[in-house]
Amino acid sequence: MLKKLPSLLQVKSLMKKIAKENGISEQVDETWDHETVVWNFSKKIANLAIKNGYKIDLDFLKIGCYIHDLGRMISGSKASKELQPAIYHGLRGYELAKKMKWPEKIARVCIRHMGGVGQTKEVNKKIGLGNKDTLAKTIEEKILAYSDCRTFFNVEKNKADIYPFKISYNRFKAYPRVGKILMKNKEYIDKITGGKLE
């Protein structure tokens, strides 16, 4: 296993290769745009947290933001075509990162970002990840998951954008346990940023 984080060039090259193999080359640009918005929002959160005395590995956070949706190059999405249900993209990204022998912590962001909190053991059991939670645990994972759940495709602007937390939270109302964990993650983000995040 590689100890070193992959570079952004390595990540994007792999995305292009896998998407092309799956006939969804258009997925790369949409995903990269989304990941850039997630990184910019994550960086904003991280910088506020650092000012408040929290230690954050910005290099890991940045690569994590650009790799978390790696599985979309296999599962696709509404932006290209859905080859598999969206719920599988975290698992597919995890498997691909492991195959590339990237560090375990990088592979984990693929499954720990889902739903803004990671995935519960009930969901994981259904998709073949076993009977365990894969919830965001580290400060970097929590920031990334929160930023990802706040990012949507803005039809008017024709690009990814940050939406208010309430809109993000409403997406998960049907899943009370996820909503409860998501609310705890928001409280955590408010704490580390000193409540200064819009």
What is the residue-averaged pLDDT? Answer: 88
**Shape, principal axes of CA atoms:** globular
- What is the count of DSSP helices, taking H or I runs of 4+ residues? 10
- The strands making up the biggest β-sheet line up spatially as 1-2
Biggest sheet layout: 2 strands, antiparallel
Number of domains: 1
Radius of gyration: 16 Å
Per CATH, which architecture? Orthogonal Bundle
CATH class: Mainly Alpha
Note the run of SSEs as H and E. Answer: HHHHHHEHEHEEHH
Q: Count all strands and give the number.
A: 4
What class, by secondary structure content? mainly alpha
Description:
The chain is globular. The model has no long low-confidence stretch (mean pLDDT 88). The chain has a single domain (8-192), classed as Hypothetical protein af1432 (Orthogonal Bundle), CATH 1.10.3210. With 198 residues, it is mostly helical. Helix 2 (27-51) crosses helix 8. Strand 3 and strand 4 (159-162) form a beta hairpin. Helix content is 59%, strand content 6%. The strands form two sheets. Strands 1-2 form a two-stranded antiparallel sheet. Strands 3-4 form a two-stranded antiparallel sheet. It has ten helices and four strands.
